[in-house]
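Each letter names a residue; the fold follows as tokens. Both lines appear below:
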Amino acid sequence: MEISAGNVFSVAVDDLAILLVFLLVGLVLRQLIKPLQKLFLPAGLVGGALALILGPQVLGIIDIPSTWSGMATPMINVVLTCTMFGTVLNAGKIKSYAGAINLIILTYFAQMVVGTLVGIGLSQIWTDLPYSWGVMTVFTYWGGHGAATTAGTLFEDLGINGMLSLGIILATLGLIVAMVAGMAVVNFGVRKGWATNLLKKPVGEKVTISALIPKEQQKPLGHATVSSDAVNGLALQLCFVLLSMWLGKMIFTNLAKVPVEPVATVMGMIPALLYGIVGAAIVWAIMCKTHLDGYADKEAVDNISGVALEICICSATATLNLELFASFLAPILIHMVCIIALMTFICVFLVRRWMKKEWFELCLMAFGQGHGSTPSGLALARCVDSDHKSTSWEAFGVALGCVTPVTSALAALLPILAAQSQWIPVGIGSAVTIACLLFGELVIRRKS
């Protein structure tokens, strides 16, 4: 039986409306329950968890719309496209903050190799674990819920089931670890005298955890680059994003039709998650070349990405496979302990060895980023430098600006390689990790 286009849109809007109600409830709960704020759990995760508890897997009070399980892929397509659109790197700052960039790259690729190796070892005991599950480390602890849903969705599309649920579970645990273990590092460092910019105030009073931003600190969600009587500014930015996705799709689908068999086969294997990335790079390059980049508003594009990510996190959390979590609790916890040990070694021992001045703030930023998210890292650093006196703040921002486009692309590319052989990420991670260690010892340490 054919379903009219009107009915399709009606179902989509109705189901999305229910999802956004849970997102709103998640925000309310986050405001009322202080531990949720202190762990920096996003409202989408809280609302999705509530829907999961009320749904058929737990209490059975509500039905979860079937469309929720299919929202991750299109929303992540939007997120990745927005991430690449308008990306500009400053060569001067890259050189100035080479140490911070090297640290962030090291935490990512060291997690890739160690996480995958530990996953391989644990799979020998728990044989039902999904293939190559250890590589999810860089998409969960390091990348957070956004990268977890991106990679998990792609793994599912490649036929490796359970990876999306596993990704959300690991990312959630990572947020908890980021603050709990991170505060232990903060207090240890304070006692050791490493926090040189620490003000004489109780540690816990330095972090603003409420979702409501004071009026004097509120910023616009974007800027109108065109006259409203011509076109709505936000609609224009959405046009750029969707144009990028469409262009990328046209390129790869047409390349898959070329009469050269090897090329057609490879192009046919390219996941849809890469379409927007390639399309955004091309559209932005053309706009810059033709001096049309003034029409773009990166802040508005980033907020479009944020909306898509909230929908993605909430829907993915609400449709988690709880049976999977219960079955693999022991290997997940063992894996988590190994990552904590790795990050402590890199962020405390190596950073202190390589960088003699104002290293502790950067250590905390990298530790929080490598376990949960950027806000977690910044929150830990604020505990010892609330007035942003350290140069680590700008260094961390530049480092993430350089590394994030690469990690975003890897979230769409690495699962394809890992699905072929889990030793591929081990090889890639080992090579980059060794290079970063050598750079730190031979270059960064000598300059500091």
Remarks:
- The radius of gyration is 22 Å.
- Residues 163-192 form the longest helix (30 residues).
